[in-house]
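quick one, 166 residues, struct below
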Amino acid sequence: GIVGDNGAGKSTLLKMITGVAFPDEGEITVDGKVAALLELTAGFSMEMTGRENIFFNGSILGMKNREIKRKFDEIVDFSGVESFIDTPLKHYSSGMQMRLAFSVAAHLDSEILLIDEVLAVGDAEFQKKCIGKMDEVSKGEGKTILFVSHNLYAIMQLCGNCIMMN
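---
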């Protein structure tokens, strides 16, 4: 877990781990395939439907088309947006967008999953569902999750270690 005040550098650190940003000095080495959910609609097109965005975002995140097809129903079911799956994303609420984005990221075959405060948008029920999925992925599947949140309860529930950034 990573916690800290706004402006402490939490999101910047995650961007450096993914290679989107680079440190001014030193280096960051990552051992494993990284999947990241850093910004709510990063890798999504507002004009495309939820269905199209699952394939689009999944491919950006490194999933093969056959893998997306195999996991499609599971992704949609977890997201809870089945009845809107063929609706353009521009008609989704921010909570629905977050549900879809988290669902795609959570079903990636990566060793490391970076999640940046996206759960703040979702409703309490979906947040609980996401925490359960992250717990399953980290403990059940042995994957590493780096979770940035202001929700200390979620950090304590999910994380064995925590970094406090000033």
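The longest strand covers residues 112-116.
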